[in-house]
Design a protein that fits this description.
heterotrimer, A alpha/beta, B alpha/beta, C alpha/beta, A: TIM Barrel, B: 5-stranded parallel sheet, 5 helices
Chain lengths: ~550, ~140, ~325
């Protein structure tokens, strides 16, 4: 073992600490500290001071090491951000495909380096715009996509061989990916040239975000289908983005976010190995992650450092992956939507900047910064511009990207990283003992852990134990308004007309045949992707395809754990 | 000697699954001593209204974060009226811009609570505005 | 309440007036005196519904089973009423009633009425409210009434005694070994359901249960409780088929009760429990409330705790004062 400090230093440190503690004790008797107990936003306790003693048991090589080297605590790349900055990837989508296409072109012009699609709720849930369930929701929270025709408009003028695109889509991930593939083919770009990500992470939906369609097991099957298809034909595509973001938004602690996300990742790896007979090294390099960057600066940085370390360990030792690329955890980060406040909305710019900085110091590969008005609605163009500029200022003015992992070696940062890691392992082992994540979800375990944490945090807010500026402290009477983007009600009508038009002109026989083929394949347990692509090309709607899934696999409904 | 207890339904209409707020409220209402019926996510207005009537609730709290509140909240009120249950009080919450409040009030939503509202404020509102009406029998 | 109004209320229940029925059940829970009047009035018209009780540990999947049973009975055009009972928090008096979440798909079907009840914890009160609610749904014309309770305590056993057929739901790997459920529940089960029967430990649970059943003697009328295995709702179509066979077992049990003239025995059992509950809620509860109101109860507790006077002595005094015996 390669100890971080020599015995001599530690001894000296210990005696100096005792002296210091005596002084502190005397002092706080006269003037107490601001509070009895200090803790992070996740209520993880933080000590008064960290010293070499706190990290005396760390092994320099096994716990920290160098960037680009196992266990990648300091980052997966040898040159950090000196080689290449993170990707500015702003999540956007609104109204019709045409509206979103315009926003995308604007963002690319403003210096954004990757695209990220927000779909509206009907699309996210596998319903067409003309479903009765979609009334009032079309185009509201993202772009409405019903058929390939919409998708072609969405990517018009975007060179799919050059720009990478992330799609936040889960239950209908096979359908949206099929549309993207079909568009690429129309542009004459071969599948090995396209790059991007589909979120495609159903476990966190059952756990936290509740955008679900099929029961857990068939959901896993579709995911493994995409992993297999990607491995074979679309090698530059990240077929899953294993997400902690939504777990955190649902109210989890940082450690829960870390633990549940990683345990989800393990579940996907195991499922693909078991059902597709794939070796981890065949697909693991294309697994990507997605974390939240919340307001507690150091906790977030340490969470991200710990995440890389645990994943590397898991891939190397638990799944015996041999390719170092399989050990890499690459992740996207979004600043915490739940930390923003409707009160005094301009304060959100500050929150987002701090969170973005944490994500950068945590070593993210790409970043979305929230706009100040996202507590009200989809962001206005001006608000998006400020959010994007926030990233650009951090990257190109502040100098934080000049050196790699600048906080390493801080007693506090290394100790907190270790605590994040240990806390996560505790959860992971617990879930292993329950029989894995599917069994844990079935028992409502992660759901309840999150709900309990969320409730506790709320109580701390109510009691003023935790402060949210403008909400429970420094409250101003007058509401500070900001301009708001309204999605016109005409979007829904326009989209319905488009859909009717497509339905009228398409070849119904071809649609029926494509859907019948898909149904047959679903029942046979074959990979659905090739058939899904055919159905999309025949202009089957998203819902028609999802209805086939629902028919064959059944529907999952909110079990409402309490 | 009767022993009235307020019954509250916490419901999530529409397609979004952001249930953090709804669940916190459901739990808080229980801790206030109310009886709480939670519907789960992705409920249609029809499902909500039918459940509210069968459960004989005094108040429905709707939570929506998808931007579809202007469609969904009024629909719940309208269906309650059609079923002769307009005495059930409806309130709403979620991501709702201020400019939509008046429209919702006009449609019969009695109050709108947005993120950052202290829970106690909601309880005070309920205690002041929601009573168990003696009715029917 | 006047005869005429009672008559009207009765007609409205019979015609399936949902608002009236749900408020009536509410008033029964809230102990509104005139609600009892209604029950007294409609009682002679009860006795048409078949009552199925479902009990088991939290998380065993009772609500899901109920949900699928509703569909199964509805497929035969039988109307269904559900009473789902959840515990009241002893600390706050509030309750979170979440069983309904899993049954929301029956919305829009006027042949289904679902109602959540909180235990409220009053002496005999819960069972009384559930019993009365059963009467109401019975008069409302529901063919099948499913009563779902959590746990296996005495009050659940009391509620279950209102059922013609009692289902006890067990799951593997949740500490539901046969030892832990023996007391009380084992004896009253008419059908055992092993839910999540695809999970590890299901076989062992099945074998243990078989063995325990083999050892049971004096099975009334010779009915040996069958064990029905349900697997995972991850496969909804298969699960629905399995619940269909559970429903068939329930109907088989109904037929058995009728054929063996056991139905009357069950009715007698129900009547006995109902009478005891009625006495508890109408005689015992009011006395307790009176004692509590003027602080006498607390005084007595104090004296008993200080070993000054025994509880029996107080009970005798109370009996003499209120019951004159």
């Amino acid at each position: 073992m390669l100890k971080y400090f020599a015995e001599e230093l530690l001894n000296k440190c210990s005696s100096l600490r005792k002296k210091w503690e005596d002084e502190v004790k005397k002092l706080i008797e006269k003037r107490p500290e601001r509070r009895q107990r200090f803790s992070t936003v996740s209520d993880h306790e933080i000590k008064r001071l960290y010293t070499p003693e706190d990290i005396k048991d760390l092994d320099f090589e096994k716990d920290i090491n160098f960037p680009g080297e196992y266990p990648f605590t300091r980052g997966v790349h040898y040159t950090g951000y000196r080689g290449r900055l993170w990707t500015y990837r702003m999540f956007s989508g609104l109204g019709t495909a045409k509206d979103t296409n315009e926003r995308w072109h604007l963002l690319l012009k403003e210096g954004q380096t990757g695209l990220s699609t927000a779909f509206d709720f009907p699309t996210l849930m596998g319903y067409d715009s003309d479903s009765p369930r979609s009334a009032g929701e079309v185009g509201k929270c993202g772009v409405a996509i019903d058929t390939l025709e919409d998708f072609l408009v969405l990517v018009e003028g975007i060179p799919l061989g050059e720009v990478t695109t992330s799609m936040t889509i889960n239950p209908p991930a096979t359908v949206m990916w099929s549309m993207y593939i079909a568009c690429a083919q129309k542009q004459g770009v071969s599948l090995d040239k396209i790059g991007g990500t589909i979120q495609n992470d159903m476990l966190k939906e059952f756990i936290a975000q509740k955008t679900f369609m099929l029961p857990p097991e068939p959901s896993m099957k579709l995911i493994s289908d995409t992993i297999e298809f990607g491995t074979k034909y679309v090698p530059k595509w990240n077929t899953i983005s294993i997400s902690g973001y939504h777990i955190r938004e649902a109210g989890s602690t940082a450690i829960q976010e870390l633990a549940f996300t990683l345990r989800d990742g393990m579940e996907y790896v195991e499922h693909a190995m078991k059902t597709k007979k794939l070796e981890p090294d065949e697909f693991a390099p294309r697994l990507s992650f997605f974390f939240n960057s919340h307001i507690d600066f150091f906790e977030e940085i340490c969470k991200m450092r710990a995440a890389r370390k645990i994943w590397a360990h898991v891939m190397k030792h638990r799944y015996k992956a041999k390719n170092p690329r399989s050990w890499w955890m690459r992740f996207h980060t979004q600043t915490a939507g739940c930390s923003l406040t409707a009160q005094q909305p301009y304060n959100n710019v500050v929150r987002t900047a701090v969170e973005a900085l944490a994500a950068v110091l945590g070593g993210t590969q790409s970043l979305h910064t929230n706009s100040l008005d996202e507590v009200y609605c989809l962001p206005t163009e001006h608000a998006v511009q400020i959010a994007l500029r926030t990233q650009q200022i951090i990257a190109e003015e502040t100098g934080v990207a000049n050196t790699i992992d600048p906080l390493a070696g801080s007693y506090f940062v290394e100790k907190l990283t270790k605590e994040m890691e240990e806390g996560a392992w505790e959860y992971i082992e617990k879930i292993d003992n329950m029989g894995g994540m599917l069994a844990a979800i079935d028992a409502g375990y992660p759901q309840m852990e999150i709900a309990n944490a969320a409730y506790k945090f709320q109580q701390q807010i109510e009691e003023g134990d935790k402060v949210i500026v403008g909400v429970n402290k420094y409250v101003t009477e007058e509401a500070q308004e900001c301009p708001i983007l309204e999605i016109d009600e005409s979007v829904e009508r326009e989209q319905l007309n488009r859909l009717n038009e497509v339905k009228r002109k398409r070849d119904d026989k071809a649609v029926k045949k494509a859907l019948d083929d898909l149904r047959r394949v679903c029942k046979k347990d074959e990979n659905v992707m090739p058939y899904c692509i055919e159905a999309v090309k025949a202009l089957a709607t998203e819902q028609e395809i999802c209805d086939v899934y629902r028919e064959v696999y059944g529907e999952y409904r909110d079990p409402g754990f309490f | 000697m009767s022993d009235r207890k307020l019954r509250i339904m916490v419901a999530k209409p529409g397609l979004d699954g952001h249930d953090r707020g709804a669940r916190i409220l459901a739990r808080y209402f229980r801790d206030c001593g109310y009886e709480v019926i939670y519907t789960g996510c992705h409920q249609t207005p029809e499902q909500i209204v039918e459940a509210a009537i069968q459960e004989d609730v005094d108040l429905i709290g709707l939570s929506c974060l998808s931007g579809a509140h202007k469609e969904l909240f009024p629909k719940v009120v309208k269906l309650l009226r059609e079923k002769g249950a307009e005495d059930i009080v409806v309130i709403g919450g979620g991501i709702i811009p201020k400019q939509d409040f008046q429209y919702l009030y006009d449609q019969g939503i009695k109050e709108v609570f947005t993120p950052g509202t202290p829970l106690e404020e909601i309880k005070e509102w309920i205690d002041k505005n929601v009573k168990v009406e003696d009715r029917i029998l | 309440m006047e005869q005429e109004r009672l008559e009207q209320v009765f007609e409205r229940i019979k015609n399936g007036d949902v608002r009236l029925v749900s408020r009536l059940i509410r008033n029964l829970e809230d102990k509104v005196p005139e609600a009892k009047e209604v029950i007294k009035y409609i009682y002679p018209y009860t006795g048409n519904a078949k009552v199925v009780g479902i009990t088991g540990a939290p998380g065993a999947g009772k609500s899901t089973i109920t949900d699928f049973l509703i569909s199964s009975f509805r497929a035969q055009d039988k109307t269904v009423g559900v009473l789902a009972v959840d515990p009241t928090s002893p600390f706050t008096g509030g309750a979170l009633l979440g069983d309904r979440v899993r049954m929301q798909n029956h919305a829009g079907d006027s042949g289904v009425f679902i109602r959540s009840l909180a235990t409220r914890g009053a002496l005999g009160g819960l069972s009384a409210a559930v019993e009365d609610a059963i009467h109401v749904l019975d008069v409302m014309g529901k063919d099948i009434i499913i009563v779902e309770t959590v746990g296996t305590g005495q009050s659940e056993v009391d509620i279950m005694n209102n059922a013609h057929t009692i289902l006890v739901v067990l799951t593997p790997g949740m500490g539901d070994d046969v030892q832990t459920i023996k007391a009380g529940i084992m004896e009253i089960a008419d059908i055992f359901v092993i839910n999540k029967g695809d999970q590890p430990g299901a076989r062992k649970l099945y074998m243990d249960l078989m063995r325990a059943l083999d050892m049971m003697q004096d099975l009334p009328g010779g009915w040996k409780p069958p064990i029905v295995k349900l697997e995972s709702i991850a496969k909804p179509a298969e699960y629905a088929n399995q619940v269909d066979s559970l429903k068939e077992k329930i109907e088989e049990h109904f037929r058995f009760l009728k054929d063996q003239k056991m139905w009357e025995l069950r009715e007698m059992r129900k009547a006995r429990v109902q009478l005891i509950n009625a006495i508890e809620s109408q005689v015992l509860s009011p006395i307790l409330e009176l004692l509590q109101k003027d602080g006498e109860f607390d005084n007595m507790v104090q004296k008993i705790a200080e070993k000054e006077i025994s509880p029996h002595e107080f009970a005798e005094q109370i009996r003499g004062k209120y019951l004159k015996i």
